[in-house]
Design goal:
The chain has one domain: 3-Layer(aba) Sandwich (YefM-like fold), CATH 3.40.1620. The longest helix is centred in the last third of the chain and has 23 residues. It has 82 residues and is of the alpha+beta class. It has a 3-stranded mixed β-sheet with strand order 1-2-3. The mean pLDDT is 93. The protein has 3 helices and 3 strands, in the order E-H-H-E-E-H. It is elongated. This is Antitoxin. Belongs to the phD/YefM antitoxin family. InterPro entries: Antitoxin_Phd/YefM, phD/YefM_antitoxin, YefM-like_sf. Antitoxin component of a type II toxin-antitoxin (TA) system. It comes from Sandaracinobacteroides saxicola.
Length: 82
């Protein structure tokens, strides 16, 4: 069965265990597919890339809320009432 590889780099679990820091450094900030018997088992995503993904996800969720609330009646509020 052919498995999609959703990263431009891959490493075996054995090589990852030998030197995880070297794998992270060699990836240069990009995700790495972790392979077990040439089958992707997981993806190693550097912290900066993960944070960027989470920011994008939050932006998409907020955009959905904005679209959902578009056209609702506005409520006047005074800053003193808050």
């Amino acid at each position: 069965m052919i498995e999609p590889l959703l990263a431009s780099a891959a490493v075996s679990i054995s090589n990852l265990k030998k030197n995880p820091s070297a794998v992270i450094a060699a990836a240069e900030g990009a995700p790495v597919a972790i392979l077990n018997r040439n089958t992707p088992q997981a993806y190693l995503v550097p912290a900066a890339a993960w944070e960027a993904l989470m920011d994008q996800l939050e932006d998409l969720e907020l955009a959905a809320i904005v679209r959902e609330r578009e056209g609702q009646e506005e409520i006047e509020v005074s800053i003193d009432d808050l």
